[in-house]
Write a structure and sequence with these properties.
7% of the residues lie in helices and 53% in strands. By secondary structure, the protein is mainly beta. It has one domain: Beta Barrel (OB fold (Dihydrolipoamide Acetyltransferase, E2P)), CATH 2.40.50. The protein is globular, with a radius of gyration of 17 Å.
């Protein structure tokens, strides 16, 4: 069995950093992916999907809080996780999130910063290099 997602898209709003009751922090944000094609008349068409992103790794959360903002272009890898909840009308619902394990920031300045779940090094604001783990 395989549950793997790879996305390239733009961050919809600044990441939200939350502290859990156990003291761990998480990052949450939305990512828009857009597909383009031409219809049978040759007209440009597009479709945008929005993905709810969640990050649990503390180093990744620190990195996201410093370097990721609305409009950032990201490459992310992770898995789909589902959450069952009951809404205010007492109806059981299911939501989906992408739990990210690694990725890269793809900036216009050709800076690609690799981010991985299992890395422990940290980055200073002025130390961004190509394929640098954080």
């Amino acid at each position: 069995m395989l549950n793997k997602v790879m996305l390239i898209g733009n961050v919809g709003k600044d990441p939200e950093i939350k502290t859990l009751p156990n003291g761990n922090r998480i990052a949450k944000f939305s990512l828009a992916t857009t597909e383009y094609w031409k219809n049978k008349n040759g007209e440009q068409q597009s479709s945008t999907e929005w993905h709810n992103i969640i990050i649990y790794n503390e180093n990744f959360v620190n990195f996201v809080s410093k370097y990721v903002s609305k409009g950032s272009k990201l490459y992310l890898e992770g898995k789909i996780v589902s959450n069952k909840y009951t809404d205010s009308n007492d109806i059981e619902r299911l939501s989906y999130q992408i739990q990210v394990s690694e990725g890269k920031i793809l900036n216009d300045k050709k800076i690609e910063t690799k981010i991985e779940e299992n890395t422990t090094s940290q980055v200073a604001d002025n130390e961004i290099d190509d394929d640098m783990p954080f």
